[in-house]
Fold:
Amino acid sequence: MEPVIFLQNAYIYQRDQLVLSAVNFTIHKGEFVYLIGRTGSGKSSVLQTLYADLWLEKGSGVVAGYELHALKRSQIPYLRRNIGIVFQDFQLLGDRNIEKNLIFYLKAMGWKDKEEMNVRINEVLTLVNLPHILAKMPHQLSGGEQQRVGIARALLNQPQILLADEPTGNLDAEMSVEILKLFMDINEKSKTAVLMATHDFELIERYPRRTLYCDKGLVQDLSESL
Ligand SMILES: Nc1ncnc2c1ncn2[C@@H]1O[C@H](COP(=O)(O)OP(=O)(O)OP(=O)(O)O)[C@@H](O)[C@H]1O
Structure:
């Protein structure tokens, strides 16, 4: 199986502060993996490194074919076109409706043809079970619906992997389960890999999958220690 993420002896820093040392893990195409750990343990920092918001200053890494240790600033948009990023706070543009939100992202990724954009927007909204909300403003949607749009947006460019940073962090328990099931459904149907950071240990116990654990400055693959 081909790796979509590969980190080898990676040292992850926030400014001058070393957050995680000697990180090693590989995620293959189509895998579903949790990234867990307490608040401040470094989950977001791992994801930020993978989408090149933080430079990988020591060690090596490859994401969707791009070498993080040799990445040029000009390559960052191209790397991000191959990954989908989902945030805890949804990060929809509040001043425009859902259709315009999605068009904005497609244009930013280089899409031009209006008809192709419409087709893709309808496809991703169907994938997240929200086919009739094009004209709605973000504030007219529930938190769970806004996160579904966030996932639809992340899927627009058919990424090899979804990186999700506490995607259920702003949702109640019931909605969290729905969103998790949606990630699992997308993962199974479209074989998009998923790396989901969470500190919701209850959710992980109910729906166990391969788990990477950030603790005391290290990342441990819990499935290897079983
Ligand atoms: N922008 C920043 N500048 C400086 N230090 C930061 C920054 N962001 C995070 N840190 C520090 O890096 C460490 C790891 O934080 P990180 O956000 O990666 O953890 P986390 O596990 O994702 O926590 P949370 O669940 O609260 O988001 C913490 O000590 C934090 O204070």
Residues 14-15, 17, 19, 37, 39-45, 199, 214 surround adenosine-5'-triphosphate (CB under 6 Å). Residues 47 and 139 are 27 Å apart (CA to CA). The helical segments are 43-50, 76-81, 98-108, 114-127, 143-155, 173-190, 201-206.
